[in-house]
Amino acid sequence: MEGIDGLLAAGENALGAGDWVAARAAFGESVTISATARGLAGLGDAHWWLGDVGSAFACWERAYGYYRRTDAAQAVFTAIALSFLYDANLGDRAAARGWAARAVRVSSQVGDPVVAAWASLARAGSTDDASQAAAASEAVYDVAVEAGDHDLELCALSLWGSALINRGHVLEGTELLDEALAGALGGEGARLDTVVFTSCLLMRSCVRGADFLRVVQWTRSLDAFIERYGCPYLHATCRASYGAVLACTGDWSRAETELSAAAELARDALPAVQAEAAAFLADLRLAQGRLPEARRLLVGFEDRTVVQPVLAAVQLAGGEPAVASSLIRRQLDRATPLEEARLREVLGRACLTTGDTAGAAAAAARLTALGSKTDSGLIAARGARLCGLTLMADGRQRDAVPRLSAAQTWFGLLEMPLEVARTRMMLADAMSPDEPAAAVAEARMALAVFEDLGAAVDADAAAAWLRAAGAGAARRGPRGVALLTKREYDVLAVLAEGLPNPEIAARLYISRRTVEHHVASILSKLGVQDQTEAAACLARATE
């Protein structure tokens, strides 16, 4: 038993230090010698932080059984964790409610108000009744303050804020979400899980509520935590949203990693969770100009609401404006504000493609009204841009300039370089009759951004526009080779020899999964679709 106790202590120390691999090794060895509740629970934690959700669930469910016979309070906490995770990782609300109900019932046998409050918070998190969730979270917060349990206090504040947003009290709710995450990152809580819980709820709530600027700002604030412990977005739902934010803000390499991880986390989840990960990854592929791959990612999820805006954009990009318009008109009533904004902008552009200026103007008016109603910078930016495009289609280029300039400013504040560059190209079109030199300058800036990001289709279009304007603009080709890390360059060099991933892993003494992450990052930075094109980039760079 002394050996097991030592392994358990080593595992717990490793968890506290964020050394998940060492924790997995220590707990795994302890469980091999003798399965205990502590060992299984710790092994589940290590698996979870390392992204192996299936193994984590298996360990925690076994740990619950052991705890139920030996330590009722720990059984409650294990049931609470399972409740939250079944919802956030698998989208299984029935299982989430079942585990929350079990936590409440067992907590009544413990006789500790703090344990009961944690169980109540789990039940609040699994309900679809926003009013009930808000009231329960507020009551839990009062218990937490009285007991001095800072982790419970911060989690209650976070869930309370999320519930208020769901009830339509956006300003009040976001203030609580901000406060909770600030306290968690400030080290008030004793558990790293508190950072995970508060950051994920803020991510999901703000993305759902179209408060994109807040998400961008908090994403930057989490960099120090991520550098030390890894990504706190350990649930499939919030990790997909995080990857989407990275993609929007131009960090396509990290977005590739996070969205691929979200898709892997969602592999065993219910279709709703899988669809969200697929939608965000397809959106990145669309931005990269990889249209066939974007289409393939959405196959099987076409009826999911979260997929509709991306699917409509894919259809429009593929030259099917009528199909895109039909899809959008059927889905508008079911969309969240951000989804509706994207749908209406795509609808307006589809109308313009078919010459329906009046339809585009109507879509722009509805989008502008939505922006005023939600107080969302992203929705306002989409509305201003569509207004500008509609004015241009009506021959009113001068009137379009201030609308497009406003859209560019909004997208800039949201740190969305691709959308800024796309809006610059529209400005170039609007300005070219009166200010040709300024229009060319705008287009040149846009082209540089497109090439740096790897947005190949947009870059080709910008270069063609400049050539038509008499301002020669040969494509530089991918500049990403210079942006690769040393390890990525090493992987690319071996990849260029034509070796498959397993042999690259063996050559460089790294895991196959690490090779896959490096290859994904390389393709993103180079703006290419496959390993053959990546090898060609290296050949051109070394000529």
Structure write-up:
- There is one protein chain.
- The chain has 543 residues and is mainly alpha-helical.
- Helix content is 79%, strand content 0%.
- It is built from 30 helices and no strands.
- The longest helix has 19 residues, at 72-90.
- The radius of gyration is 25 Å and the shape is globular.
- The protein starts with a helix and ends with a helix.
- The mean pLDDT is 88.
Which structural class should the secondary elements be placed in?
mainly alpha
List SSEs in N-to-C order: HHHHHHHHHHHHHHHHHHHHHHHHHHHHHH
Main sheet, how many strands, which sense, barrel? none
- Terminal residue distance: 64 Å
Number of helices: 30
Number of strands: 0
Shape: globular
Mean pLDDT: 88
Rg estimate, integer Å: 25 Å
Strand content: under 5%
Unreliable runs, pLDDT <50, ≥5 residues?
none
Helical coverage, percent range: over 70%
Summary tags:
mainly alpha, single chain
Summarize the structure in short:
With 543 residues, the protein is mainly α.
Give the topology, please:
Elements lengths: L1 H16 L2 H14 L3 H13 L3 H18 L1 H19 L2 H18 L2 H13 L4 H18 L2 H17 L3 H16 L6 H17 L3 H10 L1 H7 L6 H13 L3 H14 L5 H17 L3 H8 L9 H10 L3 H11 L5 H17 L3 H18 L2 H17 L3 H17 L3 H15 L4 H18 L2 H13 L17 H10 L5 H8 L3 H15 L4 H11 L2
